[in-house]
Amino acid sequence: MQARLVAKDIACRRGERLLFRGFSLECGSGQAVQVTGANGIGKSSLMRILAGLLRPFAGTVEREGMMGLVDERLALDANLPLGRALAFWQDIDGCRDPGRALEVLQLDALMDVPVRYLSTGQKKRAALARLINRNCPIWLLDEPLNGLDSQAQKAFEALIALHCQGGGIAVVASHQPIALPAPRTIDLAEYAA
Ligand SMILES: Nc1ncnc2c1ncn2[C@@H]1O[C@H](COP(=O)(O)OP(=O)(O)OP(=O)(O)O)[C@@H](O)[C@H]1O
Question: Could you report the per-residue pLDDT of 62-88, keeping only the tens digit for each?
Fold first, then answer.
């Protein structure tokens, strides 16, 4: 798995407010970075800029490799049972081993439960299962541990380590501690406008 993510001199404006400026980041295969900072500093906005969903006020983002973003939005049909909601995407995403994510994230017992009835932590696990099924090298994770119990947190930290061992990239935006392989931490407050 080969990947590269380079952000240069990024500035972010939301509404009339400049949130941060001069932010740069370079990640190659196997690297993990945590972006920290207080509520409202702009972590989610940065993740959306890195994902290409939000235009930066200044600066550029270059990506080599497919990206998967996990944030608080659950990209699964709320009215379908979880098994069918995940299956809808498995073909589109070219998933070769759908059972793996279900096993690691312990979703097997929830396959018949409509997505809208899942608990907060179960929804998060479903979102992470879809990310794993996509087999994309660049993971953009916005508060990925929110709602997960300690066992699921450890399981997901182990998955990030495996992903990086396989040449993937993980960029994690979170104000809470997360175990990453050879971690680098960037405090977004240093770039506050
Ligand atoms: N569409 C928008 N228009 C105007 N302001 C916005 C918009 N979206 C977000 N903001 C503002 O931008 C700021 C940064 O929001 P963002 O969600 O990026 O912060 P965050 O660091 O991820 O916060 P948290 O830790 O609470 O999730 C906030 O003050 C928010 O109110």
Answer: 999 999 999 999 989 999 999 999 999
Whole-model pTM: value is 0.94
ipTM over 0.85: yes
Ligand 1 atom 2 nearest Cα: 14
Q: Is the dihedral of CA 141, 146, 147, 148 positive or negative?
A: positive
Domain 29-54+66-183 CATH (choose: 3.40.630.30, 3.40.50.1110, 3.40.50.300, 3.40.47.10): 3.40.50.300
* Span from the CA of 158 to the centroid of ligand 1 (angstroms): 29
Cβ-based neighbours of 158, under 8 Å, separated by 6 or more: none
- Of all atoms in ligand 1, which is nearest to the CA of residue 142? 22
If you measure from the C-alpha of residue 10 to the centroid of ligand 1, how many angstroms do you get, rounded to a whole number?
Answer: 16
